[in-house]
Amino acid sequence: MSHHRFTSPSTTKNALGRALVIGALSLTTLAVSIDTANAQAPLLPDWNTAGVSVVTNPAKVSAFDSSDGGRALAAAESKIGAPYVWGATGPDSFDCSGLVQWAYAQAGVSIPRTTYDQAVGGAPISRDDLQPGDVVLDYGGEHVGIYAGGGEVLHAPTSGESVKRAPVDSMPYYLARRY
Predict the structure, then answer these.
(1) Of 33, 63, 151, 158, which has the fewest beta carbons less than 10 angstroms from its beta carbon?
(2) Is residue 62 one of the residues assigned to a domain?
(3) Which of 21, 54, 72, 96 is catalytic?
(4) Which domain CATH number covers 113?
């Protein structure tokens, strides 16, 4: 849990953001439901996102996505648009380390609560070896997110913002861990 200054988020902005996320997730769920109607593979657990169920078809994911980190990343992606709230651990709002801890819990992995403890857990990973699902710490260990691949990290940025993707290079990289 990092120390971000509290600012009151705009209720209208957050409500609009949640509505857009729910609409997009509804369309995605419909498309996945249609696509998986004839699928032979069982479905992964369903994460409830503001009353919308998001289901992933394992036949459509890579081998890495079936790892603990891949499942944690999928859980975190289901929370894009959720508001940042200092000290929050989900499922409706998060701070940075709360999002990472919650996402890994959805994958069945228990990790520490704070950024500082997350920085010393797991296995150290070099920046060149980052894989989707790895835990990426910035600002000397005061901020954390989950590597999403393609040079992006998924994180809960700060008060007044929502869970989103951002370029890894948009923050001062500190270290990475694999749980």
Answers:
(1) 63
(2) yes
(3) 96
(4) 3.90.1720.10
